[in-house]
Design the sequence.
């Protein structure tokens, strides 16, 4: 990959992040799509699938362990790169992947801990008592328990998006496979939480956006990139 190509990719990604961020802000503040999709899975008394065994055990706990296993495998491989010559050329990309993915989940966890937005299953109209309010607005008189924006569960899958950035300058086919895996796992984890009433659609899309943001900034900061692959600083 040439330096000009890297600059084009960075500029395009930055523009796309800005545009999609604005679109997500509108989506989360408008609420129409969020409530329409949530209403498909809800009744006035709550979400019937909230405690469904298949979604709770396989879709929530099971998929979370799949994402964690992938991250831990990469961490072990990165550590092996410091001792095994065969893995040495991969230790930079693997270390980048582990750090960028961890940054995603850490950032989302931090935002969730400070969020006053409650989950759909806590809101009035879906069996709860909390009042919904638009993103970035001040909480109302009854915001509920909060701590529900963005989706931490979806972030666990979307964090694997870092694999695309780690590989795109080294092996495009592997990078596309990593991107497909991250999107598939993230979408599956998102769908589970939306169906259970744990999150709105916008909550999960924000998790994807933050995963993209963290991977992008790590990619820009860690460089430089060459035709032979990412020359990560050690």
Sequence:
């Amino acid at each position: 990959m040439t330096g000009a190509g890297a600059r084009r990719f960075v500029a395009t990604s930055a523009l796309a992040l800005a545009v999609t961020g604005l679109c997500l802000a509108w989506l989360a503040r408008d609420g129409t799509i969020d409530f329409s999709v949530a209403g498909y899975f809800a009744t006035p008394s709550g979400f019937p699938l909230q405690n469904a065994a298949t979604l709770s055990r396989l879709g929530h706990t099971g998929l979370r362990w799949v994402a964690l296993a992938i991250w831990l495998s990469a961490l072990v491989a990165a550590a092996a790169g410091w001792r095994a010559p065969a893995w040495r050329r991969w230790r930079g990309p693997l270390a980048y992947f582990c750090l960028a993915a961890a940054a995603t989940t850490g950032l989302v966890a931090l935002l969730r801990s400070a969020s006053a937005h409650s989950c759909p299953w806590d809101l009035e109209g879906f069996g709860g008592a909390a009042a919904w309010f638009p993103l970035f607005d001040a909480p109302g008189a009854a915001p509920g328990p909060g701590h529900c924006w963005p989706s931490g569960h979806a972030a666990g899958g979307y964090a694997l998006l870092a694999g695309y950035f780690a590989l795109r300058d080294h092996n495009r086919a592997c990078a596309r496979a990593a991107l497909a895996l991250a999107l598939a796992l993230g979408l599956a984890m998102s769908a589970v939480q939306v169906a259970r009433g744990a999150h709105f659609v916008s909550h999960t899309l924000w998790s994807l956006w933050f995963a993209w943001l963290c991977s992008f900034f790590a990619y820009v900061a860690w460089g430089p990139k060459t035709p032979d692959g990412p020359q990560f600083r050690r």
Notes: Residues 119 and 198 are 5 Å apart (CA to CA). The helical segments are 3-30, 32-41, 53-80, 91-114, 152-158, 162-167, 172-196, 201-222. Strands lie at 225-226, 229-230.
